[in-house]
Amino acid sequence: MVLTLKTLLSFAMLWHTFAFAAGGVYVFHAYRVLFWGGHNPSGIKVIRSADWQLWLSGFMIIGLGIALYGVDRYTANPKLWAKVIVITIWLISTQTIRRYAVAQMRAGYRTPMLLASSVNVACWTYGAFLGVAKPLGFGAVSFTMLMAGFDVTIALCLIVTIMLENRRLHMAASLNTPDHDNK
């Protein structure tokens, strides 16, 4: 029974990794498009499919982890709760992009998209880190330290976004092209 659960957990983790990789490629492509153009509409379907695949495989990983290790032990892991918070913020940033930032960008206001995209990329990046940081689980690192790492990741993504946006604006100004999207 334990071997079967561990095998299922391994397949769920592989599924989760593939979904992350497929979605991640398009998330970073969409982020890049903000500064250099080249939008690929097919990427939207891939990202949305990857979102669903990540949710399903993630719940499967949690369920199998609880079945293998018990509720108390599995939920005592600070890394699990850090991941839950990162995923919750990822969901909020994704919905902000879909329901608010896209419309604002179409109206010429880039700031909401830049901010939400920075947070979204930070969630993907730090979520990947937490996924592979197995040695940091079960109290090896405190919840506070794990969340401090997430804060640093968000700050770095915001800094990179500001630098790339400033570069985009500088290049548009140097080419003497009107840029109506710099609000």
Descriptive overview:
Helices cover 83% and strands 0% of the residues. By secondary structure, it is an all-alpha fold. It folds into 2 domains: 1-76; 78-183, no CATH class. Helix 1 (2-36) packs antiparallel against helix 2 (42-69). The longest helix has 35 residues, at 2-36. The mean pLDDT is 93.
Radius of gyration: 19 Å
Approximately what portion of the residues adopt beta-strand conformation? under 5%
Element-by-element helix/strand order: HHHHHH
Number of β-strand runs = 0
Mean pLDDT: 93
Shape: elongated
Domains, number? 2
Most strands sheet = none
Ranges where pLDDT stays below 50 over 5 or more residues in a row are: none
Structural class, judged by helices and strands?
A: mainly alpha
The count of helical stretches stands at: 6
Structure summary:
The chain is mainly alpha-helical. Helix 5 crosses helix 6 (143-174).
Present the secondary structure layout:
Layout: H1 2-36, H2 42-69, H3 71-75, H4 78-106, H5 111-132, H6 143-174
Helix pairs in contact: 1-2, 1-5, 4-5, 4-6, 5-6
List keywords for this structure.
about 180 residues, 6 helices, mainly alpha, 2 domains, about 0% strand
